[in-house]
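[step 3/7] fold_predict: job queued, chain A
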Amino acid sequence: MATTARQWLQRIRALELPERVRIMNVCGGHERAITLAGLRAALPDAIELIPGPGCPVCVCPEEDVYQAMQLALHEDITLVAFGDMLRVPVNLPKREIRSLEQARAAGADIRPVASPTEAVAIARADPQRPVVFFAAGFETTTAPVAAMLAEGAPDNLSVLLSGRLTWPAVAMLLDSEDAGFNALIAPGHVSTVMGPEEWEFVVRDHDIPAAVAGFTPESLLAAMYSTLRQLLEGRRFLDNCYPEVVKPGGNRSAQRWLEETLEVSDATWRGVGTIPKSGYVLREGLAAHDARKLYPSYEDPQRKRIGEMPAGCDCSRVVLGKIYPNECKLYGLACTPRSPIGPCMVSDEGACRIWWAGGVRERKAPEVA
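[step 4/7] structure written:
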């Protein structure tokens, strides 16, 4: 019989924990599951769960959103994007168009889609009209985009790619002077595609316990228990607590599509800066489907505001696990889901939006180290 969430909690509570253990959960889906299940309140006070950089909408570069807006406003095209991207604001005065949603209201042909299949259907419905797919996401959503390109996208469909790899952001944190966490819950969906082995560097290079988790309370608590046991017993290994989905080696077909169509490159993360080998670009052979090459005039180097969020916004520190969402000075005041200032309040994978949806309404002052 499978171990229940209640039983995992009992096992965790029975451990002789140190005064403080900080566990980072990388994935926005994990953060949503943790918050909506009320796991923080159920766990011992010694355990802190730190939201990590696993929100692709939150880290999509401001200049990429701006480029997509300008394309849609000034070219006779249809622009499609994953739904959350439409509400992400860029750094412009309020009197100007600041999001794809506002550009759509101003007359641009912008449509939300849930998958590359929908983008292909829109392109095929009107073969004479150019369609640009603004594709932001991590490996889980980038792999289907790669599959679309590998299988042969319609001639009138191009991709404005803003794909990112998850592990380099975690590696950057671990290589810094203060990583801010003692154990890692690795993302289940990314591990399904890329294989759990991608996270072995956490244990091998940094001596930090790690466990891959799914999205149920049972899987998440199992992963937490595993990392806590590793800390207490002084042994380190990568545990797979999502074995029904995550298999050794990952999804070979998805990896082949990524390899055939895309190259890994240095990439900018909004509010973070440039992380080496953390992004995807289309291979030269797919130049006919690369919106960056088809519409180069809309790529504005002046908009590369590395390390910058909107004024007063602390999304970058939230993404890096340096503060909790409600420690941002704009949280719940100027910044709410109805009128987001920063990207973390837009997406349902953004920690600020998740905490707000989970009922956290009050701000608190950040802890002083």
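[step 5/7] annotate
The first helix runs from residue 5 to 13.
The chain has a mean pLDDT of 95.
exit 0
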